Amino acid sequence: MPHDGSKKDNTIYIKNIPDYYNNLDALNKQFKKFGPITNIKVDLKNKFTTIEFLKPKHAKAALSNKSPLFGNKDILVTADPNATLEDEAKTTKLETVLMDRLKFLIAIKKFI
After folding, report:
1. Which helix (H) or strand (E) holds 92?
2. Amino acid 39: pLDDT
3. Per residue in 25-59, pLDDT tens?
4. What is the per-residue DSSP string for 24-70?
5. Which of 20, 34, 51, 56 is 20 to 30 A from 79 via CA?
6. Sign (positive/negative) of CA torsion 72, 73, 78, 83?
7. Rounded alpha-carbon distances, angstroms, from residue 15 to 34, 41, 112
8. Is 16 left (phi over 0), alpha (psi -120 to 50) or beta?
9. How many CB atoms lie within 10 A of CB 90?
10. Taking a C-beta distance cutoff of 8 angstroms, is the pair 51, 12 a contact?
11. 5: phi > 0 → left, psi -120 to 50 → alpha, else beta; which?
12. Direct distance between the N- and C-terminal alpha carbons of the chain, in angstroms, rounded to an integer
C-alpha cells in the first residue's frame, strides 16, 4: 500500500494521477486555491498523492470541488485513502437517488 490507511481531517488523497500531473508544481498550483498546503507527498510508482492542508476546512473545500482534476475523470480525489473509483461511483449514485426521493417528497408536500 502506498499509505498507512489512517485518515486525517486536513488531508486529501489523489489516486490514478498520471505522472505528468503528479508533481509538486502542478499539484500546488491546482490545490493552493483551497487553502494553505503544509505537505505534498508524491508516489509516482503507485500514481498516488497525499496533500495536507493547514486546516480541515481547506481539505473539505478541495473535496467539495466537483470538477474533474486536470479535466481527467479517472483521477480520484478523496478523503479516504482506501477509496476506489468504484466506491465513489456508488456514493454518487446513492446521492442522486436520495436527491430524487427528496425532490419527490417536497413535491408531494406541496399538494398536501
Report:
1. helix 85-111
2. 96
3. 999 999 999 999 999 999 999 999 999 999 999 99
4. HHHHHHHHGGGS-EEEEEEETTTTEEEEEESSHHHHHHHHH--SPGG
5. 20
6. negative
7. 19, 12, 47
8. left
9. 11
10. yes
11. left
12. 54
Cα-Cα-Cα-Cα dihedral sign, residues 19, 17, 23, 20: positive
Phi, psi of 92 (to 5 degrees): -65, -40
Measured torsion, CA atoms of residues 1, 35, 89, 68, in degrees rounded to the nearest 10: -110
C-alpha cell at 91: 456514493
| 4 vs 27, residue with greater confidence | 27
